[in-house]
């Protein structure tokens, strides 16, 4: 009886040792990170940092050569149209020159011609604005009756806003032309004042606004046309972003834009107004020459939402190039090359199965799948190089 018991104990020990060795040395499942394939909105966006700028900036310059007195205005001061912003003690020798008088008279004539041109452009902008408002009103009526698509209404309203902006720009161009006339007349007035012994000349603000920058703070001798300060309306801002030309070709006027990381509590809305036709070369931080182009963006949200922004503030812009609703989305980190195509590992019952997929488009985070995957399936993110088809996996989350 004791002999049989010893044999049974030895056999049990051998079986336990073999089972322990099998458990210890059998292949362990690979730890992987997974995510589900979803169906949703696919967006191709261009993200770049940009800066704000005042839409219409006026540089007030010295109308005559002479000694400018120390300016009494500072950056941020509010000035009205016609307010005195600088005083110049004109140089009498230049003002008494017959040639200088003749040149001043010719500049006045040119400035008056530019004023007439600006007035004509303003009349044209006013007519286009009236037409755009009428077109938008007709499309609204048609859309309310179901006779026009919503996209047509959006284009008509966009054209109405653009026409209003063009009207504002034309009005300010006329104001600038009036300022040029005032400057030219100031030169002749300075000549007459010098001949009469009155050498001090006042420089007045061409428009109402705020002082953006003071370019000549101290008293100094300046030449005719030297910039003294910049004026503008800091509440009338636009955003400018430089993007690669290869990305700019997909950006169209009217494309929606989200302004982020500007310092406020919520993102701002905007729309692309212009992709400038001329590119420029910039050297990147890695020393690579890049061809880039400026994209101009209008802020479309309520002005009070971005009232804290000023001229030259840094922002991040996300411009939507393409959007597809109801697309099958897979994370880009799950994709890997397999021959000339793309593949993923799909997890089923703890086993990784390699599967070929066809992509329609790729974005920074997600890719739109045209075939090979269905919503709800689980894919492996950042698949390890040692993973093979049929390998066992364990999820880390």
From TrEMBL:
InterPro entries: UPF0194_transport (IPR050465), YknX-like_C (IPR058637). It is found in: Cell envelope. Gene3D superfamilies: 2.40.30.170, 2.40.420.20, 2.40.50.100, Helix hairpin bin. One of its GO terms (cellular component) is cell envelope. Residues 101-142 form a coiled coil. The keyword Membrane does not apply. The keyword Coiled coil applies. Residues 1-23 form the signal peptide. Keywords: Coiled coil, Signal. Residues 329-393 form the YknX-like C-terminal permuted SH3-like domain. It holds the Pfam family YknX_C. PANTHER family: EFFLUX SYSTEM COMPONENT YKNX-RELATED (PTHR32347), UPF0194 MEMBRANE PROTEIN YBHG (PTHR32347:SF29). This is Efflux transporter periplasmic adaptor subunit. It comes from Falsiroseomonas bella.
């Amino acid at each position: 009886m004791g002999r049989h018991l010893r044999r049974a104990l030895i056999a049990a020990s051998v079986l336990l040792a073999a089972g322990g060795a099998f458990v210890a040395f059998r292949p362990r499942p690979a730890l992987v990170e997974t995510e589900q394939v979803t169906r949703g909105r696919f967006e191709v966006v261009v993200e770049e940092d940009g800066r704000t700028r005042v839409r219409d900036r006026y540089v007030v310059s010295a109308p005559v050569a002479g000694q400018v007195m120390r300016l009494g205005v500072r950056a941020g001061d509010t000035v009205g149209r016609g307010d005195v912003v600088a005083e110049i003690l004109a140089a009498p020798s230049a003002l008494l020159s017959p040639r200088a008088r003749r040149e001043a008279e010719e500049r006045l004539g040119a400035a008056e011609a530019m004023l007439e041109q600006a007035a004509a452009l303003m009349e044209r902008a006013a007519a286009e604005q009236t037409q755009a408002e009428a077109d938008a009103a007709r499309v609204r009526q048609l859309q309310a009756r179901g006779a026009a698509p919503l996209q047509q209404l959006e284009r008509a309203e966009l054209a109405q806003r653009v026409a209003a902006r063009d009207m504002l720009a034309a009005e300010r161009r006329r104001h600038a032309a009036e300022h040029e006339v005032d400057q030219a007349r100031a030169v002749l007035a300075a000549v007459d004042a010098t001949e009469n012994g009155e050498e001090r000349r006042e420089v007045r603000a061409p428009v109402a606004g705020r002082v953006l920058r003071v370019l000549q703070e101290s008293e100094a001798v300046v030449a005719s046309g030297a910039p003294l300060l910049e004026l503008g309306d800091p509440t009338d801002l636009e955003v400018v972003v430089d993007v690669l030309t290869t990305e700019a070709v997909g950006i169209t006027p009217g494309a929606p834009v989200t302004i982020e990381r500007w310092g406020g509590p919520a993102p701002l809305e905007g729309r692309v107004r212009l992709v400038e036709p001329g590119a420029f070369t910039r050297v990147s931080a890695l020393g690579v020459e890049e061809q880039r182009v400026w994209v101009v963006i209008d802020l479309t949200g309520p002005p009070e939402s971005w009232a804290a922004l000023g001229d030259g503030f840094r922002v991040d812009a996300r411009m939507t190039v393409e959007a597809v609703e109801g697309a099958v989305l897979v994370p880009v980190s799950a994709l890997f090359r397999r021959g000339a195509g793309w593949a993923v590992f799909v997890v089923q019952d703890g086993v990784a199965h390699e599967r070929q997929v066809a992509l329609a488009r790729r974005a920074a985070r997600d890719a739109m799948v045209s075939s090979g995957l269905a919503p709800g399936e689980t894919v492996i993110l950042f698949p390890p190089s040692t993973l093979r088809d049929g390998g066992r996996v364990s999820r880390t989350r």
